[in-house]
Amino acid sequence: MADSSAVPMEGSAAANRRVSVLARHLESSSSDVDSNEPSLYASLTSGSDGDSVFAHVVKAPEDPILGVTIAYNKDPSPVKLNLGVGAYRTEEGKPLVLNVVKRAELQLVNNRSRVKEYLPITGLAEFNKLSAKLIFGDDSPAIRENRVTTVQCLSGTGSLRVGAEFLARHYYQRTIYIPQPTWGNHPKVFTLAGLSVKTYCYYDPTTRGLNIQGLLDDLGSAPPGAIVLLHACAHNPTGVDPTLEQWETIRQLIRSKGLLPFFDSAYQGFASGGLDADAQSVRMFVTDGGECLVAQSYAKNMGLYGERVGALSIVCGTADVASRVESQLKLVIRPMYSNPPIHGASIVATILRDRNMFNEWTVDLKAMADRIISMRQKLFEALRGRGIPGDWSHIIKQIGMFTYTGLNSKQVAFMTKEFHIYMTSDGRISMAGLNSKTVPHLADAIHAAVKLNA
Ligand code: PLA
């Protein structure tokens, strides 16, 4: 039997904790609620949760991107529209499972020799090989010389995290430069892995294009060896990519300063519709013989979002180094999730190894990219047709899944409240979530939002 005297003791300890929270709160001159501090409000209104060892836990805010879907799901309006998360939708507004993916899955299910054993820590070997070829090219000298180690990871995010954990343990420079702005999860992934995050200039709001001079200045003054996060193509959230000439200038600077490029390739095929064209930035940095990291995701380009399929490749100076690096990647992965899931990687390997399936995939991919591009055109024309003030040509100039509209957070909140249109508060809209029927509704909402600000 438990000692009953423990109960009042526990109760008084909890009370003491609440009193000290109260004291700290009263001492603090700030009226802001600090989301990292135990909340006075939560403590005082907690009712019976004082009995929990987690009573001090404060409710965290929803994720700025994935939380948009949660809010959308709660909205009963029949005209609601989710342009938050970058997830492809058909012209009918439905999620899409590619036919070629269905065919690959059928093959897998019908193959009686398949088992569900654990994969190695590094994942499915064939998947890794084919993924490296997809991003670096069939004829990549780095692959031929065995200077690349590729490990299967949990989609793009998991690949970034494993790469960052490896760097934090084994690379002398712990600072990573990320573009301003960038995908909202980047700073969290890198900080939690133990890297120190700094930003470099990327987007120029006045031109709605690339601030190449700012970028070169910032990277030019980065400490030697600093890690530089680069979006391989279809920059999220801005939809602004460097031209090939600009990439070449960036490459020269990065190499001359000995910085370490870490590519995030989450949209290969989504920018131009072509897999090779969208890998050009990465290939420039591999052709020069230098080292780099690449995180690949099959979430968008194969529509395998929830399967969590991706890969981390580290291109090393020699085959020997690559093999030692791989041995250390295993030590990063094993205590994190032991080894990756088998199904999604098997789908990808089935498609990549078969010429017909591969070709079918490239056609599907082009169709998805083209539908997004046609939505850009439709939205641009709808805005022009309404005579909305301002130059909206960035909608057709930007690349990839997103348009960075330039709408501010107040306008976004207004569009959500009045028009049931859901998007991230930075004014980013997922073009993949639009279709011909919903374009007029979005154009009306933007029209009203712009008037609001005028
Ligand atoms: N890198 C970038 C630049 C991304 O935009 C995303 C996804 C990822 C990595 C990670 O993708 P994955 O782990 O699913 O492979 N960005 C989405 C979704 C599409 C998200 O935020 O998770 C977005 O809406 O921005």
UniProtKB/TrEMBL annotation:
Protein family per UniProt: Belongs to the class-I pyridoxal-phosphate-dependent aminotransferase family.
Keyword Transferase: yes
Every Aminotransferase class I/classII large domain range: 80-446
GO cellular component, one term: mitochondrion
Catalytic activity: L-aspartate + 2-oxoglutarate = oxaloacetate + L-glutamate
Protein name, per record: Aspartate aminotransferase
Biological process annotations from GO: amino acid metabolic process
Note: In eukaryotes there are cytoplasmic, mitochondrial and chloroplastic isozymes.
Alphabetical UniProt keywords: Aminotransferase, Pyridoxal phosphate, Transferase
UniProt subunit comment: Homodimer.
